């Protein structure tokens, strides 16, 4: 097999800066009439279509798309404004039988789905890079290592809800799809040479067929610094403040962190300010915050303070599945030994195959198998468990034998005491 990591680190000529799209920066499509022309052009194009989307993470509420970029042979590059054209279902329908090429597809598919675009088949160049063993799989690194071009990545974190979008941003956006199909073709050949192309195609099919992600249960529990909050009443304060912030952010279409930081929420929960005057002295609630906002946050704290004990949240979420691995040695030493053996086997095989362990088999699947193994731990039974947890056939074929062996692992026994 070709070792992509070795290939990537071999001495190579300096990358060629890619400064402008081949046909220049296309106009932004922002009207139904202009969109109809784009739909017709891309329907008449040939080959795969490169697709990308820009969001305003950290600036706006949610993860909606604020710019969609496409490129296809025969159609050129298109930049579409989803604010002016919020329904792109006609474009999605025109490309329904076309392979879409995306980089880190799972990041863009939800926001594309919101505006009517969902591929039936796709090629994910980031995932392809992982499977091929490249150490850096960002778009810029992949284009540089595989194609020898340098992309300028200075505008990746800007506020894409800005209107009008500055020309340098549009140039950057157009260049993101300029070489995506070329990268796809090169990675397909690399995967074929390594004998991994079928693995990749199975992964791409699973991504395309997956339903949209479900809303998180108790998303407030992901507040940064939450581990510092121990008491149920304090946890209730975190929940009330998080929900109040989320509602305000949604109403104002602003990223929640720009209204109130996670650190401020945790501080308020730990300090438990009795009134607005004390609240205003806490970090994150300083003099720049108006009285109306302070009243809003204090009201949330007071609501948590007034909750009856039975309505306070539990310290941890309702957990379905095995306990955290750190607790296994105490709860079930035999299961802990199985997990240790399984992790070592997966790590060894992943190293031999030159791909990340989590792509060979997800850690959660390994934990669930080791905590609750089949009664008869044959390779066939283990394969059935892996399949039931969503493992693809290539993953099952590679890992079922080594995980079956790991299930037979026993914990070390303490030495017997010498006879008196």
Q: Overview of this structure, please?
A:
This protein is of the alpha/beta class. The protein has 20 helices and eight strands. The protein folds into three domains: 206 residues, Nucleotidyltransferase, domain 5 (2-Layer Sandwich), CATH 3.30.420; 93 residues, HRDC domain (DNA polymerase, domain 1); 82 residues, DNA polymerase, domain 1 (Orthogonal Bundle), CATH 1.10.150. The strands form two sheets. Strands 2-5-4-3-6-7 form a six-stranded mixed beta sheet, sandwiched between helices. A two-stranded parallel ribbon has the order 1-8. Helix 16 crosses helix 20 and helix 19 packs across helix 20. It holds the Pfam family DNA_pol_A_exo1.
Task: Please report the total strand number as a whole number.
Answer: 8
Strand content: 5-15%
> Which strands sit side by side, in order, in the main sheet?
2-5-4-3-6-7
Oligomerization: single chain
Structural class, by secondary structure, is: alpha/beta
Unreliable sequence segments? none
CATH architecture annotation name of the largest domain: 2-Layer Sandwich
Task: Return the domain count.
Answer: 3
Helix content, binned percent: 40-55%
The largest β sheet comes out as: 6 strands, mixed
What is the assigned CATH homologous superfamily of the largest domain? Answer: Ribonuclease H-like superfamily/Ribonuclease H
- Compute the average pLDDT: 93
- CATH structural fold name of the largest domain: Nucleotidyltransferase, domain 5
Overall form = flat
């Amino acid at each position: 097999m070709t070792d992509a990591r070795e290939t990537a680190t071999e001495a190579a000529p300096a990358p060629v800066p890619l400064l402008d799209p081949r046909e220049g920066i296309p106009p932004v499509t922002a009207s139904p009439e202009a969109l109809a022309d784009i739909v017709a052009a891309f329907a008449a194009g040939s080959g795969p279509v490169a697709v990308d989307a820009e969001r305003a993470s950290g600036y706006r509420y949610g993860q909606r798309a604020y710019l969609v970029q496409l490129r296809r042979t025969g159609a050129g590059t298109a930049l579409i404004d989803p604010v002016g054209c919020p329904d792109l279902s006609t474009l999605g329908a025109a490309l329904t039988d076309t392979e879409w090429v995306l980089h880190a597809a799972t990041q863009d598919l939800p926001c594309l789905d919101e505006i009517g675009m969902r591929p039936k088949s796709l090629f994910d160049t980031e995932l392809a890079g992982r499977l091929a063993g490249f150490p850096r799989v960002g778009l810029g690194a992949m284009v540089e290592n595989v194609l020898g071009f340098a992309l300028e990545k200075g505008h990746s974190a800007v506020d894409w809800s800005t209107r009008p979008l500055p020309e340098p941003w549009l140039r950057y956006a157009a260049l993101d799809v300029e070489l995506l199909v070329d990268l796809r073709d090169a990675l397909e050949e690399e995967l074929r040479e390594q004998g991994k192309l079928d693995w990749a195609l199975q992964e791409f099919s699973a991504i395309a067929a997956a339903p949209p992600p479900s809303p998180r249960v108790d998303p407030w529990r992901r507040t940064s610094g939450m581990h510092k909050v121990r008491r149920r009443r304090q946890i209730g304060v975190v929940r009330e403040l998080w929900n109040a912030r989320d509602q305000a952010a949604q109403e104002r279409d602003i990223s929640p962190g720009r209204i109130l930081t996670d650190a401020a929420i945790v501080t308020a929960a730990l300090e438990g300010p009795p009134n607005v005057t004390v609240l205003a002295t806490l970090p994150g609630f300083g003099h720049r915050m108006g009285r109306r906002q302070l009243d809003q946050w204090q009201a949330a704290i007071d609501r948590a303070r007034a909750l009856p004990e039975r309505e306070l949240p539990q310290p941890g979420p309702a957990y379905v599945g095995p306990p955290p691995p750190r607790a296994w040695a105490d709860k079930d030493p035999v299961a802990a030994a199985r997990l240790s053996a399984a992790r070592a086997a997966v790590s060894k095989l992943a190293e031999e195959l030159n791909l990340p362990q989590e792509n060979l088999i997800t850690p959660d699947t390994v934990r669930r198998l080791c905590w609750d193994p089949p009664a008869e731990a044959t390779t066939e039974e283990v394969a059935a468990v892996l399949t039931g947890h969503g493992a693809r056939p290539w993953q099952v074929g590679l890992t079922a034998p080594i995980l079956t062996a790991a299930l037979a692992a026993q914990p070390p026994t303490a030495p017997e005491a010498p006879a008196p």
